[in-house]
Design a protein that fits this description.
FMN binding, alpha/beta, single chain, TIM Barrel, Aldolase_TIM, oxidoreductase activity, acting on CH-OH group of donors, 17 helices, FMN_hydac_DH_AS, binds flavin mononucleotide, 14 strands, Alpha-hydroxy-acid oxidizing protein
């Protein structure tokens, strides 16, 4: 069923225990960046071209070596499978069935081997967190390669887990078992609880071999301590040398980091502030995009995520030159409300919204859209760039030097 992103979020809130909804929905600190992600997109307006005959636009794109029906992928979301008994496997099937792709989190409930065996693994990416214990990281890399996945996405914006007020209020991540408060919130969601009790995978499956806790709450509390806060560019260079497939760095915003990633020979970056869950006050990916594209100089593919809730939002990023847009919370709310079909509905609604936006803009395909980036403008302060193009956000040319 096609419903708006807001409505789906509302239904998910009514289905999930409070701590689980808050874990998904919330952000770091005062949630300034969380709000900024959507606000920055809202500040961009379209200037459509008339009479261009773009009645049936094509959204086809090749992203990170993958042919996609439309360049939207499911972003990695830790513990996403918890929202529905059908879990991440159903989400992966929905993504692949829609001609999209999925990046599986290190912290998925379903093990990466199970997910990869359920779909064509070529359409999956694996998101890696680098652990202090490098033996764990090595083992994960071997498992991912053996499962047939060739695109590795290393997340670099999580040296620590900052204060997330909603989690703190609920006692999630500090409890190492089911506290009375968490239990109470589950009891008032009997439908979710029934599904949760029936399932066999009540742990973060990918971590089971490494003994990071015997229940999900203990695992959730352990993982932020297990990640290596000292990860640096030397580590990335070593990973680049070791991983024979495609390598993507997720969680950069500064154009110098994109330039450095390009120099290292990685295949792509995902501009991201982790859905407003890490550095509160950080700018949004859509704001970072123009300068990062300048820095990339076509050497790496530049994807974005954070706050994309409609097809129109996605077209704004593509018009600015992003290779693809990743979505996080929307697909998880789809999974929470209607399982795999819910994820399929979310993707279909984004794809349809992208198509209608293209038609109304007068862009027959993505190449045409990108060639006329003047279709996007910042309504608050309109700046005319070179060649008459309208640039939505100030470039940080000096920062890329
Ligand atoms: C509940 C939740 C868990 C997440 N877990 C991960 C993760 O395990 N790895 C990762 O790289 N990003 C993770 N992210 C960030 C997403 O990949 C993505 O950057 C973000 O959700 C995009 O913003 P959006 O939710 O507004 O679409 C998580 C996001 C949420 C909401």
């Amino acid at each position: 069923m096609i419903i708006s992103a807001n409505e789906r979020r509302r239904v998910a809130r009514n289905r999930l225990p409070r701590w689980l909804f808050d874990y998904i929905d919330g952000g770091a600190g005062a949630e300034t960046t969380l709000r900024r992600n959507t606000a920055a997109l809202d500040r961009i307006g379209f200037v459509p071209f008339a009479l261009r005959g773009a009645a049936e636009p094509s959204l086809k794109a090749r992203v990170l070596g993958l042919d996609m029906d439309f360049p939207v992928a499911l972003a990695p979301v830790g513990m996403a499978g918890l929202v529905s008994p059908v879990g991440e496997i159903a989400a992966a099937r929905a993504a692949v069935g829609a001609g999209s792709a999925m990046c599986v989190s290190s912290f998925s409930l379903a093990g990466i081997e199970q997910i990869a065996a359920s779909v064509d693994p070529a359409r999956l990416m694996f998101q890696l967190y680098v652990f202090r214990d490098r033996a764990v990281t090595q083992d994960m890399l071997c498992r991912v390669w053996a499962a047939g996945i060739r695109t590795l996405v290393v997340t670099v914006d999580t040296p620590i887990t900052p204060m997330r007020e909603r989690d703190a209020r609920n006692g999630f991540r500090s409890a190492t078992g089911v506290s009375p408060r968490l239990a109470g919130q589950m009891l008032v969601r009997p439908r979710w609880l029934y599904g949760a009790l029936r399932r066999s995978d009540r742990l973060i499956g990918n971590l089971v071999p490494y003994g990071m806790g015997t229940n999900l709450f203990a695992q959730a509390a352990a993982i932020s301590r297990a990640m290596d806060p000292g990860l640096d560019w030397d580590d990335m260079a070593r990973l680049r040398a070791q991983w024979k497939g495609r390598l993507v760095i997720k969680g950069v915003l500064h154009p110098q980091d994109t330039a450095r990633a390009a120099a290292l020979g990685v295949d792509g970056v995902v501009l991201s502030n982790h859905g407003g869950r890490q550095l509160d006050g950080a700018i949004s990916a859509i704001e970072a995009l123009p300068a990062s594209l300048d820095a990339a100089q076509g050497r790496v593919e530049v994807c974005v995520d954070g706050g994309f809730r409609s097809g129109g939002d996605i077209i704004k990023a593509l018009a600015l030159g992003a290779s693809a847009v990743w979505i996080g919370r929307p697909w998880v709310y789809g999974l929470a409300t209607a399982g795999g079909q819910g994820v399929a509905d979310v993707l279909a609604s984004l794809r349809d919204g992208m198509r209608s936006t293209m038609t109304l803009l007068g862009a027959a395909d993505l190449a045409t859209l990108r060639a006329s980036r003047a279709q996007c403008l910042q309504t608050e302060s309109i700046q005319t760039g070179e060649g008459g193009a309208v640039v939505p956000f100030p470039r940080m040319a000096e920062a890329t030097a």
